[in-house]
Specification:
single chain; 470 residues; alpha+beta; five-stranded mixed β-sheet; elongated
């Protein structure tokens, strides 16, 4: 081989390498521009449109169309296009690209028997290059056109193949990012709906108690009003006694004794003391009921603090007493020492109230007894609420904590009480379990850690863990 031939061969190799470097440089430029677009964009359609501009920097074309390939060969959907009258040729493009959706380079569209367009712009297009663009969830087809016959060469084909591969992967990542955002939005909506349901259930419980609580408050208030009248009479007698003393010019021992006897001063004094004591007792009763209602109805369920379990249960019993007292008597077997745990008192009060209501409603035509037992060890508090009511059928026991499941007649239960109770206990890192025998009664056993790890996560009744029957 002569020296000239060797030089020509080396020159050819250099030209090949130079062409490869040029292709890589062009492609790298596309990649950098594409990445910049992705980082700045938050809309899939806008992203795809801007990919047209990026591609145009490397391949000259007069128009571009992107369509989505619908499943089951339903007519494709136009996603975006660089020319306004692109809908008119979607059917034409589908015919040209069936059944093979691989990359195609058509030198002259007008030589194809199926290419029949009347729009002046599309009639002026001759060359077409098309390639599939696939993402993780969708399939697209990209078309670019030129007014020049045979406008696209192998270099353009190679560059477009590499670019759409990059575009498909990056759009997939973009779609995943959008999917995560939508998922988060859906979770937030679910949490908001659940909080509304939880508050609605609590308000329903308050509504259920309203008449009974009004009666509970009305009794001591009526007695207070009656005693105010009696106290007013006694004060009037005291006033008469004092005025009688003032009229006497000389008050002797006998005079004072006669006046004291006349006005029955000792009886007035004793009666007034009794009246004040009874009024104070009635006012304290009203105060307890109102404080219990305020604690239960308080909208802030997120406040965390130390809770005396005995005090919380007794406070909840006072609120629920109007529902319980006609159905059952309450037997208490409290731990000898106070049990202090960390938690949200409003939420736990809602749990106990729901269990008290269920127990009272389960007791029918017999002497009802609701038994409350509290125990504790170094780590946990144990609360048992038992009744001797109608019990629960065995085939329904594993469903009673499911949201919207209820055994009560229509209109008497939402099916959320026990689901909410379970969610609250689990949020406190505890457990609630049920044992029941038909016509014998039901026992709810609650275990609560004294020092649970509590977070600010919203209470969820749909994501509560399933507790199997032991």
């Amino acid at each position: 081989m002569s020296n000239n031939e060797i030089l020509l061969e080396k020159l050819h190799l250099l030209q090949v390498h130079n062409l490869a470097l040029e292709e890589n440089r062009a492609f790298n430029s596309l990649i950098l521009n594409g990445l910049d677009i992705i980082l700045k964009n938050d809309n899939t359609e806008t992203l795809l449109t801007e990919f047209f501009d990026i591609l145009h920097q490397a391949i000259a074309f007069s128009a571009a169309i992107l369509i989505k390939i619908n499943p089951k060969d339903v007519m494709a959907t136009l996603i975006t296009a660089s020319h306004p009258n692109s809908d008119a040729i979607i059917t034409q493009l589908e015919v040209l690209n069936r059944p093979d959706r691989n990359i195609k380079n058509i030198f002259n569209l007008h030589q194809l028997p199926n290419w029949q367009v009347t729009d002046p712009f599309w009639h002026s297009q001759y060359a077409m290059l098309t390639t599939p663009v696939n993402t993780s969830t969708e399939s697209y087809q990209l078309y670019i056109f030129s007014e020049k016959i045979g406008a696209f060469n192998q270099h353009d084909i190679t560059l477009m193949q590499r670019f759409v591969s990059f575009a498909g992967n990056t759009i997939s990542q973009f779609e995943k990012r959008n999917l995560l955002v939508k998922q988060k939005e859906m979770e937030e909506k679910q949490n908001n709906i659940e909080q509304v349901l939880i508050n609605s259930e609590k308000m329903a419980s308050l509504g259920q108690m309203a008449a009974g609580v009004a009666h509970e408050i009305n009794n001591p208030l009526s007695y207070i009003v009656s005693n105010i009248q009696n106290l007013a009479y006694n004060l009037e007698q005291f006033s008469h006694f004092i005025n009688a003393l003032k009229t006497e010019s000389v008050i002797t021992q006998q005079t004072l004794a006669d006046l004291l006897q006349h006005f029955q001063f000792d009886e007035l004094q004793s009666d007034s003391s009794d009246i004040i004591a009874e009024m104070t007792e009635g006012a304290d009763r009203v105060k307890e009921i109102v404080q219990g209602l305020r604690q239960f109805a308080h909208p802030d369920q997120t406040k965390i603090g130390d809770i005396n379990i005995t005090e919380l249960i007794d406070n909840t019993l006072r609120v629920a007493w109007s529902e319980i007292k006609y159905s059952a008597k309450v037997e208490k077997h409290y731990n000898t020492e106070p049990i202090i745990i960390t938690g949200r008192s409003t939420q736990l009060s809602q749990v106990f109230l729901n269990l008290f209501f269920n127990a009272a409603q389960a007791i029918c035509d017999k002497a009802g007894v609701i038994t409350i037992t509290t125990k504790a060890d170094k780590k946990n508090a144990y609360i048992t609420i038992a009744d001797n009511g109608s019990g629960i059928k065995e085939d329904k026991l594993n469903k009673i904590f499911d949201p919207f499941y209820t055994t009560k007649p229509i209109g008497q239960g939402t099916g959320l009480g026990l689901a909410i109770s379970k969610a609250i206990i689990e949020q406190h890192s505890g457990q609630i379990r049920v044992e029941s025998q038909l016509n014998q009664g039901t026992i709810f056993n609650i275990t609560l850690p004294k020092k649970p790890i509590l977070t600010d996560d919203a209470l969820s009744i749909l994501n509560a863990k399933k507790i199997a029957k032991e």
